[in-house]
Structure formats: C-alpha cells, structure tokens
Design brief:
- The complex is a heterodimer of chains A (about 180) and B (about 500).
- Chain A is built from two helices and twelve strands; from the N terminus they run αβαβββββββββββ.
- Chain A is of the alpha+beta class.
- In chain A, strands 2-3-6-12-11-8-9 form a seven-stranded mixed sheet. Chain A has a five-stranded mixed sheet with strand order 1-10-7-4-5, covered by helices on one side.
- In chain B, strand 1 and strand 2 form a beta hairpin.
- Chain B is globular.
- Chain B is about 70% helix and about 0% strand.
- The chains are: A alpha+beta (about 180), B mainly alpha (about 500).
- Chains A and B meet through helix 1, strand 8, strand 9, strand 10 and strand 11 of A and helix 2, helix 6, helix 7, helix 8 and helix 9 of B.
Chain lengths: ~180, ~500
C-alpha cells in the first residue's frame, strides 16, 4: 500500500523483468534525445543566435535612430501608427527596435542577402515573432541580440510582439518587406 | 487523548488540529479554483476569436489573476492540505507546531488576497511572470512574498511533523510512498520558493523606488527558477497523489518501492535546472550553457516521469488482476471502477499529463524547436495539459476522498461526481491540443486580439479559425466540468450527509 509505512527490506526487492525492460528503454531514449539535441546544434545549424552584447537602452536607441536616419527611403502609415521605411544595403548591420507599442522601423531587405539584425528593446521586454514563419526570439532591454538573417522568400512578413508588454501589446505589429 | 479522533473508515488516528488545517486550506483552494475558473471562462470566450468577449484591458487583467489564482493559489493551498494529510494523518501522528501551520495559512491568505485585490484594482497588469522592467504596485510583489513565506512555513511544519512522528514512534518501517513523494515535493518547494524570494525582494524594493531595476535577463533567469520549478512541486505532488488514488480506489501497492522512490529523487536533483528552457531564445547565455542545462539535466527528470508512467498503471493492473480480472490483456482495464471519480480522475490525469503535457514539454524544451514554440499558444497548450488535465484533475479526484475522510461527509450529488472527471478532463485535453495547433500557426499567447488593434492586419491559416473554435467550445465545456466540481464540493460541505464517528 502506498499510504502505509513500508517494512524494512524494500530496497533489496529485485526488479521485475518488465520493469527492467521499460526502464532500459526509457534510459536509452533519454540518452538518445540528450545526444540528439546538442548534435543537431552542429548538424542542423538551426539554432538561436549566440551573439549578444550588453548595451544601455539609451545607447541602443541612438544607434537605432542613426541607422533609421541614414537609410530611410520613405514612410508608411496604418491606423494611428507611422513608420519609417528603411532600406539598408545588403550585408549591413540593421536594427529592429522594440518599444511600447511599436516595432521600428519597417525594414526593406533583399532576398538572398545576409544582414546582421540587432534586436533589442528600449523599455520593457518584447517578443519578436516573425509571421508566418513562426520564428520567435526575445527582445530584452539592455541586451543587443544579433541575429544573422538571410531572407529566402520575397514577401511581406509581419512582426508580432509575443511577450506581454502592456496595454496595447496586441497592437504591436510591425513589418519586414523582402524583395 | 482528546486531540485525536479515530477515522471510522480507515481506522487511522486523526489529529484534530491537523484536520482543521487541512479543511481550511482545502476550502480556500477550492474558492480560488472557483475564482480562477470564472476568469478562465471569460478568457477562453475572448481567445475564441469568433466570440471575442473582453476588451483588452480586462483581458490582460483577468489573465494575470487567472494565472495567480490557479497556478499559485488553488494548487499551493491544496498542496498545503496534502502536506498535512500525508504527514500527520498518514503517519498516525500529531501535527508539529500547529500555530505555525495557522501562520502559514494566514500569510498565504493575506498574500494571495492582496495580490488578487491589487490586480483587480488595476495595479498589476503584468501577467504571472511580472517581467521587469514592466512595473506593478509594490503591494503586488509584497503579496507574492507573503504567500511564498507562508508556503515555506507549511513545508517546515511538514518536515517537523516527520521528525515528531519518527521520534514518537507513531509508525514503524519506512515512510509511506505517498509521504515520501510529498517530502520530495516539499524539498523542491523550498528550493523554488527561495528563488522566488531572491527575485521578488529586489523587485519589490525597485518597485517602491528604493533601488535601480535589476537586469531584465537576470530577472528572467531567476524568476524561472521559481516560475517553472514551482510547477515541479505540482508534478511531484500529483505523482504522489496518483499513488494515493491507486491505493484508495483499487487497493494498489507500488510494484517496486525502490524504483518509485529513486524516481522521486531524480526529480529533486534535476528538475530545477531544467527550468532554463524558458531562456532558449534569449540573449545572454551561450548555446553550450542552454543545451547543457536543458538536455542532460532535463532528460534525467524526464526519466523519472517515464518510470512513474510505468509504475503507476502497473500497480493498478496488478491490483485489478488480483481482484480476478485476468482474462486477456485488457480485462483489468475494462472492469476497472470507471464510475468511481477517484479512479477516472486518476486515469485521465495520467493520460493528459503523460501523453499531452509531458511529451510536448520535452519537445518544446528542445533548443531548436523552442524557436518555433516560444511564447505562442503552444506554450499555454502545453501547460494546460500538465497543470490542468494533470495536476488539477488529480487533486479533484483526491478531493472526493478528502471529503468523506477529513470533512466526514458523504459526497453530494454522487451521479454528478461520477461524470465530473470526464466532463472536465476530456474537454481540457481537447482544449490543450487545439491551443497547440493554433500556436503552431504562429498565434501568440497572451494577446487580447491576434489581429492587432488597427495598425497592420495579420493573416492566419484557415486552420487557426477552426482550431480556436474547437478550443473555445471545449474550454467552455471544461469550465462546466470545473463548476460541477465546485458545486459538488460546496454542496457536500453544506448538505452532505454526516458520517458518524465511532
């Protein structure tokens, strides 16, 4: 009975055959997935980025503003929002700034080119969700998270904030245009 | 001794101060379940996009309170009752220092009540996770700290009672397996709640304007040592309750004590570090750090669950075969007491936790796959399978035994109790599944409106609409199942027939 005290000797009880088989299978499976995960890190190369730096929100904001000013090619509005449309040269460092409640700017990227995307927030936590790819990364104030990206499809992507960030969290939707 | 009565059903000596504490904690737990359930109904009617009931402000406020009321208050109050039950009652002992037990109750009540009031007043629209630098009223953090300190005191009383029982020789041999499991849960609770204190005390001071904010990433790391590990208290307690229900419903005995107990030790050793799967797509930690903590350590804790996944049903099978149901491979399963809510809750909880909750947890906690599941509906889909279909259902099943044994009343509306676990358990599994399906198509969690608020529009696969509708309908049915439980429990306390003490 599992609700009554157990007399001495329980430690010496041998395991049944079925138990041994089950535990062995479970152990082998656990070892297999334990190996598979780090192995896929190298084989699959589908990992979240390992490049990040600490940076104050003010400094990051200055860099992002400079970037937007430098490569601005237009503006776009939707509802009460207005964005700069920014077309950076291929291979450059690009910025995507999270703030309550906006992703800035709208990035115009070239298909097949590689960019270094600096992701961060200047106020609270935000979550970058590239829709409809369903790729998700965290935008953390005080941290510059560098994602090296190469868009492979020409289309408009939505950037949905998926980390709760206050009253209009659900309205925080930005855009990346790949041409 | 006047402090004891003898249970007319089990013959156990029941320490009256312990019984009182079990009663008050269990009743409070059910009150919070009721509050959280009503909020849950409103929330599911909002995420069901075709209905979309609540305005954003109330959606976020109620979602914060739903998390606190369910994940923290309902479960931990019930666990306090379980700690006193598995120590004092099962060991035939007196409860050590009952006044500390009352302090536990008062602190948790004041803390939980404070948090609930502050949230409802709009002072803490920050979600269960309250990530800094999103700020809540200082009283919110104070409430959480009081609640956590109360829960630690409950664990202290539990361990002190184990010592009392041992020194006063109220039992011989080793602890019952259920008490052993509860002890493992209490150890994890102390580790976990300490993380809570480490992270919430500076957060309180920051919120009160006394110190600068801590690093957002440091908060996330330590918070999850509290936020996810506290779910492992639930897992551990739930498994202990599974063994208890096995014994109460069909008289099962653990197939091998050594194996079951070793599995509990694996939980203690490895489950805490596995919490790092929450920061797999964060800056600040190397891939080596992330994958070390979320693979090696996590999978050893998974091994523990795999062991219980064998030994709980195996114990049931052995017990039922001993009753003579030996024909074929599955006669024991066919003839199992499906009309006993304790048994059906146990079985559905096993299925929901094991097949839906546990497996998806392992999948979403993988370094690469986490990119595809972080913060979308896959995550709440996963934890509604573990914490609701698993833990909550198991606790409901055990409540059907606590009512006659501790409250000494026959369960009211037995016909409703018979179907309640099905009415709750099956829809919540459907709910979780379709939540995860929608998450797979990029629907974000914690979003008052997945289509935005007037800016850019978002398009989703048509599968999302139908998934969210199925999620909505099954969520509403599950709320009815939860309401049925609350009705039965309350009715039992008020009009349930008294069981005469011998």
């Amino acid at each position: 009975m599992s609700i009554t005290p157990v007399p001495p000797g329980w430690w010496k009880m041998p395991l049944h055959k079925e138990e041994k088989i089950w535990i062995s299978i479970a152990l082998i499976w656990c070892i297999a997935i334990t190996i598979a995960m780090p192995a896929w890190h190298f084989v699959g190369q589908q990992n979240s980025s390992q490049e990040y730096y600490t940076i104050s929100a003010e400094d990051y904001n200055t860099l992002a503003e400079d970037f937007m000013e430098k490569y601005k090619t237009g503006t776009e509005t939707a509802g009460d929002w207005e964005w700069d449309v920014v077309t950076p040269p291929p291979g450059s460092d690009i910025f995507l700034r999270g703030m309550q409640w906006k992703w800035d700017p709208i990035l115009k990227l070239k298909k097949g080119e590689t960019y270094r995307l600096h992701l961060s927030s200047i106020d609270v936590l935000h979550g970058l969700s590239i829709h409809p790819l369903n790729m998700n990364f965290e935008a953390v104030p005080g941290w510059d998270y560098v994602l090296t990206i190469t868009p492979t499809q020409a289309k408009e992507y939505r950037i949905i904030c998926n980390e709760f960030c206050g009253a209009d969290h659900h309205g925080m939707i930005g855009k990346i245009i790949v041409e | 001794m006047s402090d004891f009565r003898t249970c007319s059903i089990t013959g156990l000596k029941v320490h009256l101060p312990a019984e009182k504490l079990i009663k008050i904690n269990a009743v409070t737990a059910i009150v919070f379940l009721l509050v959280g359930g009503i909020l849950g109904l409103l929330l599911v009617l909002t995420r069901w996009q075709a209905v979309h009931l609540l305005p954003p402000e109330f959606f976020y406020r109620f979602l914060t309170l739903h998390g606190i009321a369910m994940l923290v208050a309902w479960i931990i109050f019930w666990e306090m009752a379980a700690l006193y039950l598995t120590s004092a009652i099962l060991l035939n002992s007196r409860l050590a220092v009952p006044w500390v037990g009352w302090l536990q109750y008062l602190l948790m009540l004041v803390g939980g009540g404070l948090v609930a009031v502050i949230i409802l007043l709009g002072g803490a629209d920050v979600m269960f996770t309250s990530y800094v630098p999103l700020k809540a009223d200082p009283l919110y953090y104070l409430g959480i700290i009081l609640f956590a300190v109360g829960a630690i005191l409950g664990c202290v009383v539990f361990f002190a009672t184990l010592v009392v029982a041992k020194t006063e020789g109220t039992y011989s041999g080793s602890l019952p397996l259920v008490t052993y499991g509860a002890a493992a849960a209490a150890i994890i609770a102390i580790i976990t709640l300490s993380h809570g204190a480490i992270v919430f005390i500076p957060t309180l001071l920051w919120s009160a304007g006394l110190i600068p904010p801590m690093d957002a990433e440091v908060y996330r790391l330590i918070f999850w040592g509290f936020g996810h590990s506290s779910q492992q208290i639930n897992v551990c307690t739930m498994v202990a309750v599974w063994y208890m229900l096995g014994t109460l419903t069909v008289g099962s005995t653990p197939v091998n004590e050594k194996v079951c107990r070793t599995a509990f030790v694996l939980y203690i050793l490895f489950i805490n570090i596995a919490s790092e799967h929450h920061i797999l797509v964060d800056p600040g930690f190397s891939a080596a750090h992330k994958s070390w903590n979320t693979s090696y350590f996590m999978h050893l804790a998974v091994l523990a669950s795999m062991i219980h996944a064998f030994s709980v049903p195996a114990a049931l099978e052995v017990a039922l075969r001993k009753k003579g149901y030996t024909r074929g491979t599955f006669e024991w399963l066919k003839k199992a007491p499906w009309g006993n809510p304790g048994f059906s809750a146990l079985f559905l909880s096993l299925v929901g936790f094991g097949f839906l909750g546990g497996t998806t947890g392992v999948i979403f906690g993988t370094e690469q796959l986490n990119i595809l599941s972080h913060n979308n509906l896959r995550i709440p889909g996963h934890f509604h399978a573990t914490v609701v279909a698993g833990t909550t259902l198991a606790f409901m099943g055990a409540t059907y035994y606590v009512l006659p044994l501790i409250f000494q009343r026959e369960v009211a509306f037995p016909w409703l109790a018979k179907i309640q676990p099905y009415l709750f358990g099956i829809p919540i599994m459907v709910f979780s599944t379709f939540m995860m399906v929608a998450g797979g198509f990029g629907v974000s969690r914690r979003s008052a409106d997945m289509y935005g608020s007037g800016g850019f529009s978002v398009e989703y696969s048509p599968i999302v609409d139908i998934s969210l509708s199925i999620m909505g309908i099954s969520g509403v049915v599950a709320c009815l199942g939860g309401a049925a439980f609350c009705v039965i429990a309350v009715a039992t306390l008020i009009i349930g027939k008294k069981i005469e003490a011998k």
